Amino acid sequence: MKSKKITVRKKVTWFINSLIIFLFIVLFLREGLQKNDPVSLFFYFTVGVILISLIFKSLKNKPETKEQRLEKWKLIRKRGVYYYIFTRGLLGYSVPIWLIAWGFDTDFSQGIMLSDLLEISPFIIIFGLFSGWVQWSKREEELIEENYKYKFQK
Q1: Which residues, other chains included, contact 150 with Cβ-Cβ below 8 Å and sequence gap of 6+?
Q2: How many domains are there within the chain?
Q3: Is the domain of 153 the same as that of 104?
Q4: Which residue among 18, 45, 63 closes a domain?
Q5: Does residue 111 come out as left (phi exceeding 0), alpha (psi in the -120 to 50 range) or beta?
Q6: For residue range 44-99, what is the model confidence (pLDDT) as tens digits?
């Protein structure tokens, strides 16, 4: 019974996340269609396509069990905390959010303003470092908790 509740909860969570991403897609596509210059149109449609691909990727992936997730984490953690924070935090979160925030704020009809991109960069970099560190800490806690359970089950 408990596993059925968890499965239903995962499906509901997936549905809500997909709905939020879909609303962002509609927002980006609507914003792109309202612009008259081709650069902003290309930017907004590209972001929309990327978000659509995220939805399809999440549809394709089967939910992992906790054991599978922990085994995958054991392989990932061998590379170290700094590598994880750099790849998952900075590259995985900061760069996409940085580009989306910049693209939403920039008026492409006046040209591409890199100064606008540099204005928000310190905040986005700090966000990426923090999110990578939080993810690392969460995964480590799960691993410690699982090892603790395993130790006392024997």
Answers
A1: none
A2: 2
A3: yes
A4: 63
A5: left
A6: 778 777 777 777 776 666 667 778 888 888 888 899 999 999 998 888 888 888 87
